[in-house]
Amino acid sequence: MNYGCDILGPSGQGKSTLLRILSTLESMDGGSLSLHGRLVTSWGPSEWRKKVCYVPQQPIMLPTTVADKLALVSKLHQRSFDKPLAQNLMEQVGLGDLNWSQKTADLSGGQKQRVQESVPEDSLEWTDSSLIEGGMDSYCLH
């Protein structure tokens, strides 16, 4: 079952900061953070990163191909790459016809973000994206 949540608000109100905190890329000033009933402090960094992923507004792309980018998380986690799942995810974000041998540096900003969102992983994903209409920023939890 997939759940979603949007965090809306004007620029500069801390939405990106919240997503970076949830991904443990920034420290909290107070409070606690838990996942599946376990405090974030009880997870090892690599274990947490296997469960939680942050996709920034401007994804950082290594100088590689789309295919290599899609397979990167599987390689880092020493798992087999699920190519049919990646193909399905690419179709879902409107990139089903994208040439996987294309260099990521040649992609548009929107294509880079959608490729990043199509990386197969078994984790929570915090997607930081701008909503053009209405001047509001929108954030999505998958």
Distance between the termini: 10 Å
Q: How many strand units?
A: 6
Q: Which bin fits the share of residues in helices?
A: 25-40%
Strand content: 15-25%
Which parts are unreliable, with pLDDT below 50 for 5 consecutive residues or more?
A: 130-142
What is the element string, with H for helices and E for strands?
EHEEHEHHHEE
Shape: globular
**What is the assigned CATH homologous superfamily?**
P-loop containing nucleotide triphosphate hydrolases
Top-tier CATH class: Alpha Beta
Assign the CATH architecture: 3-Layer(aba) Sandwich
Mean pLDDT value = 78
What is the name of the CATH topology?
Rossmann fold
Could you give the order of strands across the largest sheet? 1-6-5-4
Find the structural class using helix and strand composition: alpha+beta
Blueprint (SSEs and pairs):
Layout: E1 6-9, H1 15-22, E2 34-35, E3 38-39, H2 45-51, E4 52-55, H3 66-76, H4 83-92, H5 109-117, E5 124-130, E6 137-141
Parallel strand pairs: 4-5
Antiparallel strand pairs: 1-6, 2-3, 5-6
Molecular structure report:
The protein is of the alpha+beta class and 142 residues long. The chain has a single domain (6-141), classed as 3-Layer(aba) Sandwich (Rossmann fold), CATH 3.40.50.300. 32% of the residues lie in helices and 17% in strands. It contains five helices and six strands, in the order βαββαβαααββ. The chain has helices spanning 15-22, 45-51, 66-76, 83-92, 109-117, and strands at residues 6-9, 34-35, 38-39, 52-55, 124-130, 137-141. The strands form two sheets. A four-stranded mixed β-sheet has the order 1-6-5-4, with helices on both faces. A two-stranded antiparallel ribbon has the order 2-3. The longest helix has 11 residues, at 66-76. The radius of gyration is 16 Å and the shape is globular. It starts with 5 loop residues before the first strand and ends with a strand. Mean pLDDT is 78; it is low at 130-142.
